[in-house]
Design a protein that fits this description.
With 489 residues, the chain is an alpha+beta fold. Helices cover 47% and strands 15% of the residues. It has helices at residues 5-11, 35-49, 54-57, 76-92, 102-112, 125-137, 242-247, 272-280, 284-314, 320-345, 359-384, 401-410, 418-432, 435-446, 451-460, 464-476, 484-488; strands at 17-20, 23-25, 58-61, 64-67, 142-145, 168-172, 176-187, 194-197, 213-217, 223-227, 251-262, 266-268, 348-350, 354-356. The chain has a 6-stranded mixed β-sheet with strand order 2-1-10-11-7-6, with no helix packed on it. The chain has a 4-stranded mixed β-sheet with strand order 5-8-9-12. Strands 3-4 form a two-stranded antiparallel sheet. The model has no long low-confidence stretch (mean pLDDT 93).
Length: 489
């Protein structure tokens, strides 16, 4: 089944509990701070359901149609098909939404390619398969919360009687498990149907009660979503914050108070090692993060297009030094896109019949994006200069006839009208300087984990012996010089 945008909006009016500070949000699809992003997600569902994109965005199996992000890749062409669908969604959102419906669906799909990983006492392979089929059959938008709250990472919590905040199993019965505590950081939880609860960070064996992995609806009794402050302010014109109005996907802490989860929703229980291994001993981490890198490559194109528009609006586009900066940005975008394409070209086999994207190319791209994002933002800021601050506070200036006339006369630049120039700078500021932009900077640095973890992935997946042996083979082809005494004889 492929949901339409209207079906999607109706499906998330499901009684979930969302708090913004002390305010409870009754309906994220209509609340002023949330409805813009809700409409964007609905538009993504309509995009997937459109007849002209049917073969690009969906696949057929057993006489049914499913969203392409649930396709289990068996060939290199399957990887290309998934890539094209990701690209369509990221292009639609300019690469600015990190948790669209294709992200975590890709992770779950990747897990199913290595069923054997779950076939041990702590794993529930049949549950995983049933969850996957349920998700693709119902076109489920799933997010994840797979990191403990920062305070819970201190060992002191486990050496005293102070209640520690990390989510854990506090009771079990024939029907399932009871969960209490917190998980972070569920991006888009206000808009998703379900959430994958798990542990992407290593767990000590003694913390096995935290080793719970499950996929659950976001409206379970006792589960509440504590959202950060929304950036979309009531009464602000979309013209003045165009990206914030559409793409503030929100982030939520998940708070569990005696939440009962049926056994059929559990895929790992009481196995600390397995709780993390399901991401790296299956293609889950790789397939999900390929989507993330497609998104970032689209974002690079957004940066490049914005740089072009900014410099045209300031009249600096033809200055040689500025063209050099634009050329550097263009080269960076082309290089990064090649890194993403290389993940398909150097694909890897999984088990007897599966495939996944190349890990070296993937983790190299993640590291590059993590390190370069802030520098690119700074470059755009330099190109923009103080342009944003030279414009009136908001487009409401046009409501005053006298002021509007002055604005349109003095703020125009050549063939570019004052309103069009202001549109460019408002868009640019929302991309690089607003609250939304600041949040994106943190997101790009940490969404995969801390920098040392990303570098460790690159270390692990580098064939060091192969690279070194080629040098050793070359050195072996050269004759060692004879000692002087022997040569003289």
């Amino acid at each position: 089944m492929i949901l339409s945008g209207r079906d999607y909006l109706e499906s998330i009016r499901d009684g979930r509990t969302i708090y913004v500070g002390g305010e409870q949000i009754k309906d994220a699809t209509t609340h002023p701070a949330f409805r813009g992003a809700a409409q964007t997600f609905a538009a993504i569902y309509d995009l997937k359901a459109s007849p002209e994109l049917r073969d690009e965005m969906t696949f057929e199996e057993g006489g049914e149609r499913f969203s392409m992000h649930y396709l289990q890749p068996r060939t290199q062409e399957d990887l290309r098909r998934r890539h094209r669908a990701h690209r369509r969604i990221t292009d639609f959102t300019l690469g600015l939404m990190g948790r669209t419906p294709d992200t975590v669906a890709s992770s779950i799909t990747g897990m199913t390619l290595a069923r054997e990983v779950f076939e041990r006492p702590g794993g529930y392979a049949d549950n995983l398969e049933n969850i996957y089929r349920h998700m693709r059959r119902n076109d489920v938008f799933c997010t994840y919360a797979i990191v403990p709250p920062q305070g819970a990472r201190s060992k002191e919590f486990y050496n005293n009687k102070v209640r520690q905040p990390a989510l854990q199993v506090t009771a079990e019965d024939d029907r399932g498990v009871t969960l209490n505590g917190m998980k972070m950081l569920a991006t888009s939880a206000a808009y998703a149907h379900e959430v994958l609860i798990g542990n992407v960070m290593p767990l000590d064996a003694a913390r096995r009660k935290e080793a719970i992995t499950c996929v659950i609806p976001l409206n379970l009794p006792g589960l509440s979503l504590w959202a950060r402050r929304p950036f979309n302010r009531s009464g602000e014109a979309e013209f003045d914050a165009p990206l914030t109005a559409r793409y503030d996907e929100s982030d939520c802490m998940l708070v569990f108070k005696d939440v009962h989860v049926p056994w059929e929703k559990v895929i790992v229980h009481d196995d600390a090692e397995l709780s993390r291994n399901i991401y790296h001993h299956t293609p889950a981490h790789v397939i999900a993060n390929h989507q993330c890198m497609v998104r970032f490559s689209t974002k690079m194109r957004t940066f490049l297009g914005m740089a072009n528009l900014i410099t045209r609006a300031t009249g600096a586009h033809e200055i040689p030094a500025v063209r050099e900066v634009l050329g550097r940005l263009a080269a960076a975008e082309a290089g990064f896109s090649a890194m993403v394409a290389g993940q398909i070209e150097n694909y890897e086999k999984v088990g007897d019949s599966g495939v996944m994207y190349g890990r070296r190319e993937l983790y190299g791209a993640i590291h590059w994006a993590m390190e370069q994002h802030s520098a690119i933002i700074d470059t755009l800021r330099e190109l923009m200069g103080g342009g944003h601050f030279q414009f009136p506070a908001d487009i409401g200036i046009l409501q005053n006839e006298e002021l509007a006339e002055t604005f349109q006369e003095l703020w125009a630049s050549g063939a570019i009208s004052a309103v069009d120039r202001m549109r460019v700078f408002k868009f640019a500021w929302d991309l690089i300087g607003s609250d939304l932009a600041s949040r994106a900077t943190s997101y790009e640095k940490f969404f995969v984990g801390p920098a040392f973890a990303v570098r460790n992935y690159n270390f692990i997946y580098t064939p060091w012996d192969r690279f070194s042996s080629s040098i050793e083979d070359a050195m072996a082809r050269y004759d060692a010089p004879m000692p002087l005494g022997i040569a003289a004889q």
